């Protein structure tokens, strides 16, 4: 009986993560950091990063670069230069991978 409940929750959980627009906690956090006042990425790359502007759109950017290359490029305008929290940058890069 108890095992049945466990199996049921596993099925519900697996179903939940299969939705296309479902983001991981890191991706969700990255989206917030991306648009934040501190990072200002959205000022040049558009409100969600998909639009672009002064800087390029990030649609499909994770197919163009490896995670390490994106970490390097994502830091190009970090305020002050090079001083971004690597965990916040990693979250931004995770988020860019969803575009
Ligand atoms: C002042 C405007 C400006 C800001 C702010 C800015 N960018 Fe950019 N970004 C650009 C421009 C212009 C380019 C293209 C030229 C270059 O690579 O420098 C670019 C390129 C990039 C690229 C490489 C994209 C590609 O397809 O080659 C990444 C990744 C990137 N930016 C991430 C970020 C992140 C993350 C932030 C916030 C921490 C940010 N940018 C803030 C203007 C900006």
Highlighted features:
99 residues; Cytochrome Bc1 Complex, Chain D, domain 2; 56% helix; binds heme C
CATH topology call: Cytochrome Bc1 Complex, Chain D, domain 2
Helix content: 55-70%
* Top CATH class: Mainly Alpha
Q: SS-based structural class?
A: mainly alpha
Unreliable spans: none
Calculate the terminal CA-CA distance, rounded to whole Å.
42 Å
Total number of helices: 6
Q: Characterize the biggest β-sheet.
A: none
Q: Could you give the count of β-strands?
A: 0
Which small-molecule ligands are present, each listed once?
A: heme C
How does this structure look, described?
The chain has 6 helices and no strands. The mean pLDDT is 84. The protein is globular. The protein has a single domain, classed as Cytochrome Bc1 Complex, Chain D, domain 2 (Orthogonal Bundle). It has 99 residues and is an all-alpha fold. Heme C binds next to helix 3 and helix 5.
Short description:
With 99 residues, the chain is mainly alpha-helical.
Question: How would you summarize the topology of this molecule?
Answer:
Layout: H1 2-17, H2 25-35, H3 41-45, H4 61-64, H5 67-74, H6 86-96
Helix pairs in contact: 2-6, 5-6
The protein binds heme C (HEC).
């Amino acid at each position: 009986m108890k095992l049945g409940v466990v199996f049921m929750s596993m099925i519900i959980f697996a179903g939940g993560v299969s939705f296309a627009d479902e983001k991981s906690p890191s991706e969700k956090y990255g989206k917030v950091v991306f648009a934040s006042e501190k990072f200002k990425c959205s000022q040049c790359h558009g409100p969600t990063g998909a639009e672009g502007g002064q800087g390029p759109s990030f649609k499909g950017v994770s197919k163009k670069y490896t995670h390490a290359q994106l970490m390097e490029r994502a830091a190009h305008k970090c305020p002050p230069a090079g001083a971004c929290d690597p965990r916040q940058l990693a979250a931004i890069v995770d988020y860019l991978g969803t575009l």
